[in-house]
Amino acid sequence: MAEQQVQPLHNEKHANTKIQNGINVEFMKTQHLVPVVAHEFARVANEFPMSFVKNNESGTFQAVAMFGLEPGENLFVEDGKWTAAFAPMASTRYPLGLVKHPDQDQYGIVIDEASALVGEDEGNALFENGEETDYLKRRKEALVSFIEFSQVTEAFTKFLADKELLIAQTLTVDIKGEKKDINGIYLIDEKKLNELSDADFLELRKRGYLAPIYSFLTSTHQVARLARLKAKQA
Asked: Is there a contact between 90 and 96 (Cβ–Cβ < 8 Å)?
């Protein structure tokens, strides 16, 4: 796999640089879990199962979409193409990214020059006469939104963890008659959710957390879809 060459975006250096729309399939094909933000849970739930994974060092949780049933497996990449109808924001940001300046509260844009989506021949121009194009402005807005959405999602996840609504779970899937266990994931505990005090439930509603919670719960049905895809590809 090509090494990344991440450079700060510059209107002179990248005067002729263009970006093609698409997904970094080369990178994605080995990703079985990809971070998702609460704002896209409803879309994600139509395609993929979601779960939370725990960072054992910090003890914090992160919401992820599941693209495979084991590490290194992405069942939605076939023949070098992304086959799902939707891709989470974390994977559509590429080949651009935001980097926070160490000493100030500002972000700078970086670009992976080694990406197959980056070139000078085809795609969307980033600069015109030294000025940012509308395309680049839109991409920048999406990058900033992603950071904001991620912060909201962190607060949402922390709230669920604090209320002890996340529970370690083993999912069992059936692949061509063979049972397979998926461990190390956390789901929202529906029983505990239903037992919340009125005050806590009201708090969930006020914070706008009910919609992502229900989307998350529905998404679990998509595990069967992963099993079907795996059986088909096997």
From this structure: no
